[in-house]
Specification:
Largest sheet: 12 strands, antiparallel
Structural class: alpha+beta
Helix content: 10-25%
Length: 811
């Protein structure tokens, strides 16, 4: 028998075949750059490996835009309850225990969310329970990145064991080719209980007559495995069903539960719980099917998933993948789908590295929200019951990392994909109605996880409406969110899940409405100062929304509440070096929480006073006045981005300075526009995009947080940034590309021209909006709602007189 080629050679041959057949023509090798010609095949510049190291928590597997299925590795560091990073994959960990069907992009709370049903091509006989292999010493395999390929919609890997997997997906289904060494036992393990956070229950059925494997897992528990916020989220809220069919018969079958192996069995069940260590060790269930590879070493599997039912999984598979479709066929369609989606922002010129960073950021931004409804419109509600999408709603979406997304990703979605944004808004409203009127701040599938702080849904839907999104019940949604912001709920007095997963969405609202700030000692929240700032942002956004709806009385009330941030600004709080005036937590009796330090997180959520003091995007002029005027505020902002010696400090790690890895301060570089020094925004943003973002696995600064950090880069590269939640106004910066077109299905296209854009021209010298010269560093809502053109003249040195007049500053 001839020797078998190595995984690397086999993958190289497969990749060559892909190029020759045109299945993914041009995806693996970007076309030669053409001066300022607009990119026509964006997938050529997408590298799914960006963000898989450095805490980015992205995943490289196969996924479609907004897809339900995301087929990607579950890696292991020798602990079956962990993976080395949140969401299943860490570039530096080159051992995996399966290829899981669902993932969430860039979320924290290691081990993340989802990662349901790892399927492992295993070379060897199954002689013991894989669940009992708690250190992944036996039923896992190493791999090399040389044997790994990731492009939009397709993932291929060769394992050290000699097995390979080639995966491609539709929205709710996928197809895989597995190959094995011809002279060794070949098995596929279905680890049905081993979701990233564990499971309450799982089941598997093997139908040898029809060459099918079906099953489900009852799970949830986002942030539960590691008990962030106690055991509040160690609970189930969804069941994922799967149905897999094969092109050939099984030679062997078997199942396992905990430490017991049942060779020849065709059914099994059992969860592994949500604990770690000894409390979980050896628990779980699954099954395997084996194949005779002496004459044929390839196995094709087609699989569908559903959050509703087994029948739904099978229907999704039938609807989306033809019976004889190959991996190439499905991958070709996936690549085309991504090209269509990414072509909503076509850039011209710039270096290949810039285009790769840009389109990968856009790719990560448009991974979510994620479908949870089947092809027939059914989905699992937050009440645990099946529902159908509302009339006029195309699909039900979920995975809402509100505290993160409302600052950038939501605005990008509204700008480029308003119809998706509208369906997402309706989806969140549907969930709230099924949840007793409560809008949860972090929704995973159909689960209210309560993660983070504030009321980000109010800011999100107000932003959607301001930016022209109308395909949702905006009157009903506004009334519901206004009620949540004005009528106390019993959950607001609970400390369950605190600090990270506090149950109350407007915690201790009665006290907040009376005191006009969240008191640290009775707030039932993560931190009183942070809660006050978050609620002020949300209320200001509700006020703008109410104003647009013609509800002026409510608008005035919410606009006033948007100024309550001032009640946690202590003008006497100092850093010990002469700078005074910081956000500080307060007690119910009005006294300030001490001891105080700008570098402390006391009263804050995932940040310090030094960062949160700038988190007043809705009232920058008021913040500047409180600090002693715009000039003083600008000098303080200089110190936020620079070390004492004047050098840049924008990479994080300093509690007193800018942290690009988390959300509370990501708008801060753009505050110079409102302070009358827009050239400092231009140079600061350019420093961040040049030194914090880039290509390669470490190309993101930290958690992508469901596309938020990527969306920040997309906006910055285009020379635009959302001014404040609930508004369609955009702040202006210097574009990275000589030309760009935002191709929008409604509202009109936006065309951006900056002929001098390159590495040496980071400053704005002049701007024309719709052919009219402007001396303002911001645009009103018309650019977003109607479309238009921006023409920049860029320079290699700052223009310190452009857009500095007090009358023309953004508020």
């Amino acid at each position: 028998m001839p020797s078998r080629p190595s995984p690397a050679r086999r993958l190289a041959a497969r990749a060559a075949a892909i190029v020759l057949t045109g299945a993914l023509a041009g995806v693996l090798t970007p076309p030669a750059a053409q001066a300022d010609a607009l990119v026509t095949r964006p997938t050529a510049y997408v590298d799914p490996m960006i963000g898989t190291a450095n805490g980015g928590n992205t995943y490289p597997g196969a996924v479609r835009p907004y897809g339900m299925m995301a087929w990607s590795p579950t890696s292991t560091t020798g602990d079956q309850t962990s993976t080395g990073a949140a969401n299943g994959y860490e570039y530096g960990v080159t051992r995996m225990r399966g290829l899981s069907l669902t993932h969430v992009n860039g979320a924290g709370c290691n081990p993340g969310a989802a990662g349901d049903v790892p399927i492992m091509p295993y070379v060897g006989d199954v002689t013991s329970s894989p669940s009992a292999d708690t250190k992944d010493a036996v039923y896992a395999s190493g791999f090399s990145h040389d044997d790994e390929r990731a492009v939009p919609g397709r993932y291929t890997v060769g394992l050290d064991s000699g097995a390979t997997a080639d995966l491609a997906v539709s929205e709710r289904a996928g197809v895989a080719d597995f190959s094995f060494p011809a002279d060794k036992p070949a098995n596929l393990l279905f680890r049905v209980s081993n979701s990233l956070n564990g499971s309450e229950d799982a089941e598997i059925e093997i139908d040898t007559a029809h060459r099918k494997v079906t099953g489900s897992v009852l799970t949830g528990a986002f942030c539960g495995r590691r008990a962030n916020g106690g055991t509040n989220n160690r609970r189930s809220y969804y069941r994922l069903y799967f149905s897999a069919s094969f092109d050939r018969a099984f030679s062997t079958t078997g199942t396992w539960r905990d430490g017991t192996l049942a060779p020849g069995a065709t059914s099994g069940s059992g969860g592994e719980g949500y604990a770690t260590g000894a409390d979980r060790a050896g628990r779980g269930s699954g099954g395997w099917v084996g194949f005779d590879t002496t004459a044929d070493d390839d196995v094709r599997m087609r699989i569908g998933i559903s959050y509703v039912s087994q029948a739904g999984a099978e229907a999704n598979l039938r609807q989306e993948i033809a019976p004889r479709a190959s991996v190439d066929d499905v991958a070709r369609a996936g690549s085309a789908a991504w090209d269509r989606e990414l072509s909503s922002a076509r850039v011209g010129g710039g270096s290949e590295a810039r285009r790769t960073t840009f389109y990968t950021a856009l790719y990560h931004s448009l991974m979510q929200p994620n479908l949870i409804s089947d092809t027939d419109g059914r989905y699992p509600g937050m009440d645990g019951k099946p529902h159908r999408v509302e009339r006029g709603q195309k699909a039900q979406y979920s995975n809402f990392s509100g505290w993160d997304q409302y600052r950038a990703q939501i605005q990008l979605l509204a700008l480029l994909k308003p119809r998706i944004a509208g369906d997402f808004a309706q989806s969140l409203y549907n969930f709230a109605r099924q949840n007793g009127g409560v809008w949860d701040r972090w929704v995973h599938v159909n689960g209210a996880t309560h993660v983070m702080t504030g009321d980000p849904t109010a800011a999100t839907l107000a932003t959607f409406y301001a930016m022209g999104v109308r395909n949702f019940d905006y009157e009903g949604a506004f009334e519901s969110l206004a009620r949540q912001a004005t009528v106390p709920h019993p959950g607001g007095l609970s400390d369950a899940g605190c600090p990270g997963q506090c149950t109350g969405q407007r915690p201790n609202l009665a006290q907040y409405l009376e005191s006009h700030y969240a008191a640290q000692d009775v707030c039932h929240c993560w931190g009183g100062a942070a809660e006050t700032l978050e609620d002020a942002v949300a209320d200001a956004a509700l006020g703008r929304w109410a104003r647009l709806l013609g509800r002026d009385e409510e608008a005035a009330a919410f606009e006033e509440r948007g100024l309550w941030w001032r009640n946690v600004f202590n003008p006497a709080a100092g850093d010990g070096a002469g700078t005074t005036g910081y956000i500080q937590a307060r007690k119910l009796d009005g006294s300030w929480v001490t001891p105080f330090s700008p570098g402390s997180d006391l009263g804050f959520a995932q940040g310090t006073s030094a960062t949160y003091t700038w988190m007043v995007p809705q009232d920058v002029q008021g913040l500047a006045e409180a600090m002693g005027g715009r000039e003083v505020a600008a000098q303080r902002l200089d110190g936020f981005f620079h070390a004492a010696d004047g050098s840049w400090s924008v990479k994080g790690g300093d509690a007193l300075r800018y942290d690009p890895t988390n959300e509370p301060g990501i708008h801060a570089p753009w505050l110079y526009n409102a302070l009358g020094k827009p050239w400092k925004t231009q140079e600061t943003v350019r420093e961040i995009v040049d030194t914090v973002y880039g290509t390669g696995p470490r190309g993101l600064p930290g958690n992508d947080d469901l596309g938020t950090m990527s969306a920040w880069y997309v906006f910055s590269a285009l020379g635009l940034y959302p001014q404040t939640p609930g508004s369609a106004s955009m702040l202006l910066g210097a574009p990275l590309f000589p030309s760009a077109v935002l191709d929008r299905p409604q509202g009109g296209d936006i065309r951006i021209s900056a002929p001098e854009a390159d590495a040496t021209h980071p400053y704005i010298d002049a701007v024309r909006i719709d052919r009219r010269t402007t001396d303002r560093s911001w645009t009103d809502a018309r650019l977003v709602t109607r479309g238009g053109s921006l023409a920049y003249r860029l320079a290699d040195r700052p223009n310190t007189s452009w857009a500095t007049g007090p009358a023309g500053l953004p508020r």
